[in-house]
Write a structure and sequence with these properties.
By secondary structure, this protein is mainly β. It has a single domain, classed as UDP N-Acetylglucosamine Acyltransferase, domain 1 (3 Solenoid). The protein is about 15% helix and about 35% strand. The chain is built from one helix and 20 strands. The strands form two sheets. Strands 1, 2, 4, 6, 8, 9, 11, 12, 14, 15, 17 and 18 form a twelve-stranded parallel sheet that branches. Strands 3-5-7-10-13-16-19-20 form an eight-stranded mixed sheet. β19 and β20 form a beta hairpin. The longest helix is centred in the last third of the chain and has 24 residues. The radius of gyration is 15 Å and the shape is globular. The chain binds coenzyme A. This is Gamma carbonic anhydrase family protein.
Length: about 180
């Protein structure tokens, strides 16, 4: 694939059934789990640190993924770690943060270095999550800066997995067109 680029001799590695739309570009040390989908115009740079994306997660159109380098004061730097069944909405910016499993990052969100998002969280569209915040499992966060809005409803908790499953089906249709 032409859109998988090497940085210092390291090229992204892909699990089974991964879909990467041809206008997306991925550099360096990036690991994609099985059935991950990467949609048009996504830019992901695993250059000064690593990016990993867990099985069945989807990164929607125009999203930007990057990391922060290691330094004496921060020996691990800030890698970007995305869990399983995560839906990242259109034009999100994820930088050096750690997302658990079954999360919806709304369209246009900014999630900054050192943020930890626990499992089963929705971050409302357009929210900004400042550095080093921890978002608690099972809750909705909205706004700039993002604040806890309320616990998720049962229907929303169920939807988180439905959303990633829908994207697995969708990318399978796109793979069928290739
Ligand atoms: C967050 C979201 C799920 C909330 O849905 P909802 O059921 O309407 O939420 P609620 O009505 O309980 O809203 C709680 C409060 O947050 C506010 N709110 C909702 N979404 C917000 C957002 N994105 N940014 C700021 N405030 C928001 C509501 O106005 C409400 O405020 P109030 O209590 O002062 O009236 C929805 O607005 C959203 O952002 N979805 C993301 C969709 C998306 O980006 N999908 C990815 C692409 S497929």
């Amino acid at each position: 694939m032409k859109n998988l680029k090497s940085y210092k001799g390291i090229t992204p590695t892909l699990g089974k059934g991964v879909y990467i739309e041809e206008s997306a570009v991925l550099y360096g040390e990036i690991t994609l789990g099985d059935d991950v989908s990467i949609w048009p115009l996504v830019a992901a740079r695993g250059d000064v640190n690593t990016i990993s994306i867990g099985a069945r997660s989807n990164i929607q159109d125009g999203s930007v993924l990057h990391v922060t380098r290691r330094s004496p004061s921060n020996p691990n730097g800030y890698p970007l770690i995305i869990g399983e069944d995560v839906t990242v909405g259109h034009k999100a910016m994820l930088h050096g943060c750690q997302l658990g499993n079954r999360i919806l990052v709304g369209m246009g969100c900014v999630v900054m270095d050192g943020v930890v998002v626990e499992d089963d969280v929705i971050i409302g569209a357009g929210s900004v999550v400042p550095p080093n915040k921890r978002l608690e499992a099972g809750h909705l966060y909205v706004g700039n800066p993002a604040k806890l809005a309320r616990p998720l409803k049962e229907s929303e908790l169920t939807f988180l997995k439905v959303s990633s499953d829908n994207y697995v089906k969708l990318k399978n249709e796109y793979l069928g067109e290739l």
